[in-house]
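User: Can you help me understand a structure? I only have the sequence.
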Amino acid sequence: MRLALITKPDNRKSLILVLLVLSIAINYVDRTSLSIAAPSVSTELLLSPTQMGVLLSSFFWSYASFMILAGWLADSYGVRWVLGIGFLVWSLATLATSFATSFGMLLGFRLMLGMGESAAFPSYSKVIASEFPSHLRGFPNALIDAGSKIGPGLGMLVGGFLLAAHGWRMLFFILGVSSLAWLVLWFKWSPRNETPRSKNYERGPGILEILGKRDALGTFIGNGCMSYAANFLLTWLPSYLIDKRHLSLNMTAIWSAVPFVVAAATSLAAGYLSDRWITGGITPTRVRKGIAIVGLLGMTLMLPLVMVENLRVAIALLLGVYIANGLYSSNYWAITQTLAGPYAAGKWTGLQNTSNSVAGLIAPLVTGIIVSKTGSYFLAFLSCAVLAVIGAASYAFIVGPIVPVAWNRSNIGASAERFDPISLSEATPTIRGEVGDGKSEGSSG
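Assistant: Let's start by predicting it. Here is the structure, written out as C-alpha coordinates:
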Protein backbone atom coordinates (compact mmCIF):
# COMPACT_ATOMS: atom_id res chain seq x y z
CA MET A 1 0.00 0.00 0.00
CA ARG A 2 1.18 3.52 -0.73
CA LEU A 3 1.43 5.34 2.58
CA ALA A 4 3.92 7.84 1.23
CA LEU A 5 2.27 10.75 2.99
CA ILE A 6 2.35 8.94 6.30
CA THR A 7 5.86 7.58 6.31
CA LYS A 8 9.21 8.41 4.75
CA PRO A 9 8.67 11.55 2.63
CA ASP A 10 6.99 13.53 5.42
CA ASN A 11 7.73 12.66 9.01
CA ARG A 12 5.79 15.73 10.13
CA LYS A 13 2.51 14.14 9.09
CA SER A 14 3.46 10.95 10.92
CA LEU A 15 4.09 12.91 14.10
CA ILE A 16 0.83 14.82 13.76
CA LEU A 17 -1.08 11.57 13.27
CA VAL A 18 0.57 10.00 16.32
CA LEU A 19 -0.42 13.03 18.40
CA LEU A 20 -4.02 12.80 17.20
CA VAL A 21 -4.19 9.11 18.11
CA LEU A 22 -2.73 9.82 21.56
CA SER A 23 -5.18 12.67 22.08
CA ILE A 24 -8.26 10.57 21.31
CA ALA A 25 -7.03 7.79 23.62
CA ILE A 26 -6.60 10.38 26.40
CA ASN A 27 -9.99 11.81 25.46
CA TYR A 28 -11.75 8.51 26.07
CA VAL A 29 -9.78 7.72 29.23
CA ASP A 30 -10.86 11.06 30.69
CA ARG A 31 -14.50 10.74 29.69
CA THR A 32 -14.84 7.19 31.06
CA SER A 33 -12.97 7.85 34.33
CA LEU A 34 -16.14 8.75 36.23
CA SER A 35 -17.73 5.44 35.24
CA ILE A 36 -14.84 3.61 36.88
CA ALA A 37 -14.88 5.76 39.99
CA ALA A 38 -18.69 5.99 40.31
CA PRO A 39 -19.12 3.59 43.28
CA SER A 40 -16.38 5.32 45.30
CA VAL A 41 -17.53 8.84 44.38
CA SER A 42 -21.18 8.15 45.19
CA THR A 43 -20.26 6.59 48.55
CA GLU A 44 -18.00 9.45 49.68
CA LEU A 45 -20.24 12.29 48.48
CA LEU A 46 -23.52 10.53 49.39
CA LEU A 47 -24.89 10.70 45.84
CA SER A 48 -28.08 8.89 44.89
CA PRO A 49 -28.27 6.62 41.83
CA THR A 50 -30.33 9.32 40.11
CA GLN A 51 -27.66 11.94 40.75
CA MET A 52 -24.95 9.61 39.47
CA GLY A 53 -27.02 8.94 36.36
CA VAL A 54 -27.26 12.68 35.74
CA LEU A 55 -23.50 13.03 36.13
CA LEU A 56 -22.78 10.17 33.73
CA SER A 57 -25.06 11.60 31.05
CA SER A 58 -24.25 15.28 31.58
CA PHE A 59 -21.03 14.97 29.57
CA PHE A 60 -23.11 14.64 26.40
CA TRP A 61 -25.14 17.77 27.17
CA SER A 62 -22.22 20.14 26.66
CA TYR A 63 -20.44 17.82 24.22
CA ALA A 64 -23.37 17.94 21.81
CA SER A 65 -24.15 21.61 22.48
CA PHE A 66 -20.64 22.84 21.60
CA MET A 67 -19.97 20.46 18.68
CA ILE A 68 -21.27 22.75 15.93
CA LEU A 69 -19.35 25.71 17.35
CA ALA A 70 -16.20 23.58 17.54
CA GLY A 71 -16.56 22.64 13.87
CA TRP A 72 -16.99 26.28 12.88
CA LEU A 73 -13.94 27.28 14.91
CA ALA A 74 -11.81 24.51 13.37
CA ASP A 75 -12.71 25.65 9.85
CA SER A 76 -12.36 29.34 10.66
CA TYR A 77 -9.31 29.46 12.91
CA GLY A 78 -7.46 26.19 12.31
CA VAL A 79 -6.84 23.22 14.56
CA ARG A 80 -3.58 24.27 16.21
CA TRP A 81 -5.30 26.52 18.74
CA VAL A 82 -8.81 25.05 18.62
CA LEU A 83 -7.71 21.52 19.54
CA GLY A 84 -4.99 22.83 21.87
CA ILE A 85 -7.41 24.98 23.88
CA GLY A 86 -10.06 22.26 23.87
CA PHE A 87 -7.53 19.74 25.17
CA LEU A 88 -6.44 22.16 27.89
CA VAL A 89 -10.05 22.70 28.99
CA TRP A 90 -10.87 19.00 29.25
CA SER A 91 -7.59 18.18 31.03
CA LEU A 92 -8.21 20.91 33.60
CA ALA A 93 -11.76 19.60 34.06
CA THR A 94 -10.39 16.14 34.82
CA LEU A 95 -7.83 17.58 37.22
CA ALA A 96 -10.43 19.77 38.95
CA THR A 97 -12.69 16.77 39.52
CA SER A 98 -10.19 15.50 42.09
CA PHE A 99 -11.08 18.51 44.28
CA ALA A 100 -14.88 18.22 43.97
CA THR A 101 -16.82 18.13 47.22
CA SER A 102 -20.43 18.21 46.01
CA PHE A 103 -22.80 17.10 43.28
CA GLY A 104 -22.91 20.64 41.86
CA MET A 105 -19.13 20.84 41.51
CA LEU A 106 -18.97 17.45 39.80
CA LEU A 107 -21.75 18.47 37.41
CA GLY A 108 -19.91 21.66 36.49
CA PHE A 109 -16.67 19.81 35.82
CA ARG A 110 -18.43 17.19 33.68
CA LEU A 111 -20.02 19.94 31.59
CA MET A 112 -16.60 21.55 31.26
CA LEU A 113 -15.17 18.21 30.15
CA GLY A 114 -17.78 17.81 27.41
CA MET A 115 -17.21 21.37 26.22
CA GLY A 116 -13.46 20.80 25.86
CA GLU A 117 -13.75 17.40 24.20
CA SER A 118 -16.16 18.76 21.59
CA ALA A 119 -13.11 20.21 19.80
CA ALA A 120 -11.60 16.80 19.11
CA PHE A 121 -13.38 15.19 16.14
CA PRO A 122 -13.97 18.37 14.10
CA SER A 123 -10.25 19.09 14.45
CA TYR A 124 -9.29 15.55 13.45
CA SER A 125 -11.42 15.75 10.31
CA LYS A 126 -9.99 19.15 9.46
CA VAL A 127 -6.41 17.85 9.74
CA ILE A 128 -7.02 14.66 7.76
CA ALA A 129 -9.02 16.40 5.02
CA SER A 130 -6.26 18.99 4.68
CA GLU A 131 -3.13 16.86 5.12
CA PHE A 132 -4.02 13.59 3.39
CA PRO A 133 -5.44 12.96 -0.11
CA SER A 134 -8.79 11.17 -0.21
CA HIS A 135 -7.36 7.79 -1.29
CA LEU A 136 -5.14 7.72 1.83
CA ARG A 137 -7.65 8.79 4.48
CA GLY A 138 -8.92 5.36 5.52
CA PHE A 139 -5.87 4.33 7.53
CA PRO A 140 -5.40 7.64 9.42
CA ASN A 141 -9.09 7.58 10.38
CA ALA A 142 -8.78 3.94 11.40
CA LEU A 143 -5.83 4.78 13.65
CA ILE A 144 -7.85 7.49 15.38
CA ASP A 145 -10.80 5.13 15.71
CA ALA A 146 -8.51 2.48 17.20
CA GLY A 147 -7.37 5.06 19.73
CA SER A 148 -10.99 5.73 20.68
CA LYS A 149 -11.44 2.03 21.37
CA ILE A 150 -8.14 1.47 23.15
CA GLY A 151 -8.84 4.50 25.36
CA PRO A 152 -11.80 2.95 27.22
CA GLY A 153 -9.87 -0.30 27.61
CA LEU A 154 -6.90 1.53 29.11
CA GLY A 155 -9.24 3.58 31.24
CA MET A 156 -10.79 0.47 32.73
CA LEU A 157 -7.41 -1.20 33.31
CA VAL A 158 -5.21 1.69 34.50
CA GLY A 159 -8.08 3.48 36.20
CA GLY A 160 -8.98 0.36 38.15
CA PHE A 161 -5.42 -0.03 39.44
CA LEU A 162 -5.12 3.66 40.39
CA LEU A 163 -8.50 3.61 42.07
CA ALA A 164 -7.65 0.52 44.11
CA ALA A 165 -4.24 1.84 45.13
CA HIS A 166 -4.84 5.55 45.70
CA GLY A 167 -8.58 6.33 45.64
CA TRP A 168 -10.73 8.27 43.21
CA ARG A 169 -9.32 11.74 43.92
CA MET A 170 -5.78 10.70 43.08
CA LEU A 171 -7.12 8.93 39.96
CA PHE A 172 -8.51 12.19 38.55
CA PHE A 173 -5.47 14.18 39.70
CA ILE A 174 -3.00 11.86 37.97
CA LEU A 175 -5.08 11.68 34.79
CA GLY A 176 -5.43 15.46 34.62
CA VAL A 177 -1.77 16.28 35.25
CA SER A 178 -0.38 13.58 32.95
CA SER A 179 -2.73 14.64 30.14
CA LEU A 180 -1.27 18.14 30.13
CA ALA A 181 2.08 16.77 28.89
CA TRP A 182 0.46 16.14 25.50
CA LEU A 183 0.04 19.89 24.97
CA VAL A 184 3.81 20.44 24.92
CA LEU A 185 4.19 18.00 22.04
CA TRP A 186 1.12 19.36 20.23
CA PHE A 187 2.35 22.94 20.09
CA LYS A 188 5.75 21.70 18.94
CA TRP A 189 4.51 19.54 16.05
CA SER A 190 0.95 20.65 15.23
CA PRO A 191 0.06 22.04 11.77
CA ARG A 192 1.37 25.56 11.25
CA ASN A 193 0.67 26.09 7.54
CA GLU A 194 -3.03 26.78 7.83
CA THR A 195 -4.28 29.73 5.84
CA PRO A 196 -4.23 32.90 7.97
CA ARG A 197 -7.46 34.84 8.28
CA SER A 198 -7.49 37.95 6.10
CA LYS A 199 -9.87 40.11 4.15
CA ASN A 200 -9.34 37.85 1.11
CA TYR A 201 -10.06 34.64 2.98
CA GLU A 202 -13.58 33.24 3.18
CA ARG A 203 -14.70 30.56 5.58
CA GLY A 204 -16.02 28.08 3.06
CA PRO A 205 -19.63 26.86 3.03
CA GLY A 206 -21.83 27.84 5.93
CA ILE A 207 -23.75 25.52 8.21
CA LEU A 208 -27.05 26.11 6.38
CA GLU A 209 -25.44 25.20 3.05
CA ILE A 210 -24.13 21.95 4.55
CA LEU A 211 -27.53 21.16 6.07
CA GLY A 212 -29.08 21.64 2.64
CA LYS A 213 -27.05 18.78 1.16
CA ARG A 214 -28.71 15.38 0.89
CA ASP A 215 -25.37 13.67 1.52
CA ALA A 216 -25.06 15.44 4.87
CA LEU A 217 -28.49 14.22 5.96
CA GLY A 218 -27.53 10.69 4.95
CA THR A 219 -24.33 10.70 7.00
CA PHE A 220 -26.13 12.20 10.00
CA ILE A 221 -28.80 9.47 9.97
CA GLY A 222 -26.39 6.61 9.28
CA ASN A 223 -23.88 7.71 11.88
CA GLY A 224 -26.57 8.43 14.47
CA CYS A 225 -27.97 4.92 14.09
CA MET A 226 -24.55 3.36 14.65
CA SER A 227 -23.87 5.69 17.57
CA TYR A 228 -27.06 4.57 19.30
CA ALA A 229 -26.02 0.92 19.11
CA ALA A 230 -22.40 1.60 20.07
CA ASN A 231 -23.34 3.68 23.11
CA PHE A 232 -25.89 1.08 24.19
CA LEU A 233 -23.08 -1.48 24.28
CA LEU A 234 -20.68 0.93 25.98
CA THR A 235 -23.09 1.73 28.81
CA TRP A 236 -25.21 -1.40 29.26
CA LEU A 237 -23.15 -4.39 28.12
CA PRO A 238 -21.53 -5.02 31.54
CA SER A 239 -24.94 -4.98 33.23
CA TYR A 240 -26.34 -7.35 30.61
CA LEU A 241 -23.44 -9.79 31.03
CA ILE A 242 -23.88 -9.84 34.80
CA ASP A 243 -27.68 -9.78 35.01
CA LYS A 244 -28.63 -12.06 32.13
CA ARG A 245 -25.50 -14.07 31.32
CA HIS A 246 -24.53 -14.42 35.00
CA LEU A 247 -20.83 -13.71 34.49
CA SER A 248 -18.59 -12.90 37.43
CA LEU A 249 -17.16 -9.40 37.81
CA ASN A 250 -13.76 -10.55 36.55
CA MET A 251 -15.23 -12.27 33.49
CA THR A 252 -17.47 -9.28 32.84
CA ALA A 253 -14.42 -7.01 32.88
CA ILE A 254 -12.64 -9.26 30.39
CA TRP A 255 -15.56 -9.58 27.98
CA SER A 256 -16.32 -5.88 28.24
CA ALA A 257 -12.72 -5.02 27.27
CA VAL A 258 -11.80 -7.70 24.70
CA PRO A 259 -14.41 -6.54 22.15
CA PHE A 260 -12.78 -3.09 22.06
CA VAL A 261 -9.47 -4.70 21.09
CA VAL A 262 -11.21 -6.75 18.40
CA ALA A 263 -12.94 -3.66 17.03
CA ALA A 264 -9.70 -1.67 17.01
CA ALA A 265 -7.84 -4.41 15.12
CA THR A 266 -10.69 -4.72 12.61
CA SER A 267 -10.77 -0.97 12.09
CA LEU A 268 -7.04 -0.80 11.38
CA ALA A 269 -7.20 -3.71 8.92
CA ALA A 270 -10.25 -2.30 7.12
CA GLY A 271 -8.73 1.17 6.98
CA TYR A 272 -5.50 -0.19 5.50
CA LEU A 273 -7.27 -2.35 2.94
CA SER A 274 -9.71 0.39 1.91
CA ASP A 275 -6.85 2.75 1.07
CA ARG A 276 -5.08 -0.01 -0.81
CA TRP A 277 -8.15 -0.89 -2.88
CA ILE A 278 -8.82 2.75 -3.75
CA THR A 279 -5.17 3.29 -4.67
CA GLY A 280 -5.50 0.20 -6.87
CA GLY A 281 -8.33 1.77 -8.85
CA ILE A 282 -11.59 0.83 -7.11
CA THR A 283 -13.79 3.87 -6.55
CA PRO A 284 -14.18 5.35 -3.05
CA THR A 285 -17.93 4.91 -3.46
CA ARG A 286 -17.66 1.13 -3.78
CA VAL A 287 -14.99 0.78 -1.10
CA ARG A 288 -15.94 3.24 1.62
CA LYS A 289 -19.72 3.05 1.27
CA GLY A 290 -19.56 -0.71 0.83
CA ILE A 291 -17.53 -1.25 4.00
CA ALA A 292 -19.76 1.13 6.00
CA ILE A 293 -22.93 -0.63 4.84
CA VAL A 294 -21.55 -4.10 5.56
CA GLY A 295 -20.50 -2.94 9.01
CA LEU A 296 -23.94 -1.55 9.83
CA LEU A 297 -25.69 -4.68 8.59
CA GLY A 298 -23.28 -6.79 10.65
CA MET A 299 -24.50 -4.99 13.77
CA THR A 300 -27.80 -6.85 13.36
CA LEU A 301 -26.00 -9.80 14.99
CA MET A 302 -27.13 -8.11 18.20
CA LEU A 303 -30.54 -9.71 17.71
CA PRO A 304 -29.47 -13.37 17.70
CA LEU A 305 -26.97 -12.50 20.45
CA VAL A 306 -29.77 -11.74 22.89
CA MET A 307 -31.82 -14.72 21.74
CA VAL A 308 -29.35 -17.62 22.00
CA GLU A 309 -29.01 -19.55 25.26
CA ASN A 310 -25.48 -20.87 24.78
CA LEU A 311 -22.95 -18.52 26.36
CA ARG A 312 -20.13 -19.39 23.97
CA VAL A 313 -22.33 -18.72 20.95
CA ALA A 314 -23.43 -15.43 22.50
CA ILE A 315 -19.80 -14.37 23.07
CA ALA A 316 -18.95 -15.30 19.48
CA LEU A 317 -21.86 -13.17 18.25
CA LEU A 318 -20.72 -10.33 20.50
CA LEU A 319 -17.28 -10.41 18.90
CA GLY A 320 -18.98 -10.43 15.50
CA VAL A 321 -20.89 -7.29 16.49
CA TYR A 322 -17.65 -5.53 17.39
CA ILE A 323 -15.98 -6.70 14.19
CA ALA A 324 -18.87 -5.08 12.32
CA ASN A 325 -18.45 -1.93 14.39
CA GLY A 326 -14.76 -1.84 13.48
CA LEU A 327 -15.56 -2.22 9.78
CA TYR A 328 -17.95 0.72 9.85
CA SER A 329 -15.83 3.00 11.99
CA SER A 330 -12.76 2.53 9.79
CA ASN A 331 -14.32 4.47 6.92
CA TYR A 332 -17.22 6.66 7.99
CA TRP A 333 -15.11 9.74 8.74
CA ALA A 334 -13.23 9.28 5.46
CA ILE A 335 -16.62 9.42 3.71
CA THR A 336 -17.47 12.68 5.46
CA GLN A 337 -14.05 14.22 4.84
CA THR A 338 -14.16 13.39 1.13
CA LEU A 339 -17.68 14.75 0.70
CA ALA A 340 -16.97 17.91 2.70
CA GLY A 341 -13.49 18.68 1.42
CA PRO A 342 -10.93 20.70 3.42
CA TYR A 343 -13.09 23.83 3.52
CA ALA A 344 -16.09 22.25 5.27
CA ALA A 345 -14.67 19.19 7.07
CA GLY A 346 -14.74 20.83 10.50
CA LYS A 347 -18.29 22.15 10.33
CA TRP A 348 -19.69 18.99 8.70
CA THR A 349 -17.99 16.83 11.34
CA GLY A 350 -19.34 19.06 14.11
CA LEU A 351 -22.88 18.70 12.79
CA GLN A 352 -22.51 14.95 12.27
CA ASN A 353 -21.02 14.42 15.71
CA THR A 354 -23.93 16.35 17.20
CA SER A 355 -26.29 13.68 15.89
CA ASN A 356 -23.93 11.06 17.32
CA SER A 357 -23.97 12.72 20.71
CA VAL A 358 -27.76 12.98 20.81
CA ALA A 359 -27.96 9.27 20.00
CA GLY A 360 -25.33 8.59 22.68
CA LEU A 361 -27.44 10.50 25.20
CA ILE A 362 -30.71 8.78 24.25
CA ALA A 363 -29.46 5.17 24.07
CA PRO A 364 -28.70 4.57 27.77
CA LEU A 365 -31.85 6.39 28.89
CA VAL A 366 -34.17 4.47 26.55
CA THR A 367 -32.49 1.21 27.48
CA GLY A 368 -33.01 1.91 31.16
CA ILE A 369 -36.73 2.49 30.54
CA ILE A 370 -37.02 -0.70 28.47
CA VAL A 371 -35.27 -2.87 31.04
CA SER A 372 -37.18 -1.41 33.97
CA LYS A 373 -40.55 -1.81 32.24
CA THR A 374 -40.03 -5.25 30.70
CA GLY A 375 -37.36 -6.84 32.88
CA SER A 376 -35.71 -7.95 29.64
CA TYR A 377 -33.00 -6.69 27.28
CA PHE A 378 -34.65 -8.13 24.16
CA LEU A 379 -36.33 -4.92 22.96
CA ALA A 380 -33.16 -2.96 23.67
CA PHE A 381 -31.11 -5.23 21.41
CA LEU A 382 -33.90 -5.34 18.83
CA SER A 383 -34.05 -1.54 18.61
CA CYS A 384 -30.31 -1.42 17.96
CA ALA A 385 -30.60 -3.99 15.18
CA VAL A 386 -33.47 -2.11 13.52
CA LEU A 387 -31.57 1.17 13.68
CA ALA A 388 -28.51 -0.52 12.16
CA VAL A 389 -30.62 -1.50 9.12
CA ILE A 390 -31.94 2.06 8.86
CA GLY A 391 -28.38 3.36 9.02
CA ALA A 392 -27.25 1.01 6.24
CA ALA A 393 -30.19 2.12 4.08
CA SER A 394 -29.24 5.75 4.69
CA TYR A 395 -25.73 5.23 3.36
CA ALA A 396 -27.02 3.12 0.48
CA PHE A 397 -29.87 5.34 -0.73
CA ILE A 398 -29.39 8.86 0.68
CA VAL A 399 -25.63 9.35 0.53
CA GLY A 400 -24.54 9.68 -3.09
CA PRO A 401 -21.20 8.97 -4.78
CA ILE A 402 -18.21 9.61 -2.53
CA VAL A 403 -16.78 12.59 -4.40
CA PRO A 404 -16.38 16.16 -3.12
CA VAL A 405 -19.58 18.16 -2.93
CA ALA A 406 -19.73 21.25 -5.15
CA TRP A 407 -19.87 24.15 -2.72
CA ASN A 408 -20.80 27.69 -3.65
CA ARG A 409 -17.48 28.93 -5.03
CA SER A 410 -18.09 32.45 -3.72
CA ASN A 411 -17.56 30.99 -0.24
CA ILE A 412 -14.04 29.84 -1.04
CA GLY A 413 -11.62 32.71 -1.44
CA ALA A 414 -8.58 32.65 -3.70
CA SER A 415 -6.27 32.38 -0.73
CA ALA A 416 -7.99 29.19 0.32
CA GLU A 417 -6.55 27.42 -2.69
CA ARG A 418 -3.18 27.58 -1.01
CA PHE A 419 -4.58 25.74 1.99
CA ASP A 420 -4.47 22.25 0.55
CA PRO A 421 -3.25 22.00 -3.04
CA ILE A 422 -3.18 18.20 -2.92
CA SER A 423 -6.81 17.76 -1.91
CA LEU A 424 -7.98 20.58 -4.17
CA SER A 425 -6.25 19.27 -7.27
CA GLU A 426 -7.52 15.75 -6.85
CA ALA A 427 -11.05 16.92 -6.14
CA THR A 428 -11.42 19.27 -9.10
CA PRO A 429 -12.02 16.68 -11.86
CA THR A 430 -14.73 14.86 -9.92
CA ILE A 431 -16.55 17.49 -7.89
CA ARG A 432 -20.20 16.51 -7.87
CA GLY A 433 -22.45 18.99 -9.57
CA GLU A 434 -19.68 20.31 -11.81
CA VAL A 435 -17.62 18.16 -14.16
CA GLY A 436 -19.92 15.33 -15.18
CA ASP A 437 -21.84 15.69 -11.90
CA GLY A 438 -19.80 12.84 -10.48
CA LYS A 439 -21.44 10.40 -12.87
CA SER A 440 -18.29 8.40 -13.33
CA GLU A 441 -19.08 6.95 -9.89
CA GLY A 442 -22.82 7.24 -9.97
CA SER A 443 -23.40 3.61 -10.84
CA SER A 444 -21.20 2.36 -8.02
CA GLY A 445 -23.29 3.67 -5.12
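Now, to help you interpret it: Residues 262 and 299 are 14 Å apart (CA to CA). The longest helix spans residues 11-45. Let me know which part you'd like to focus on.
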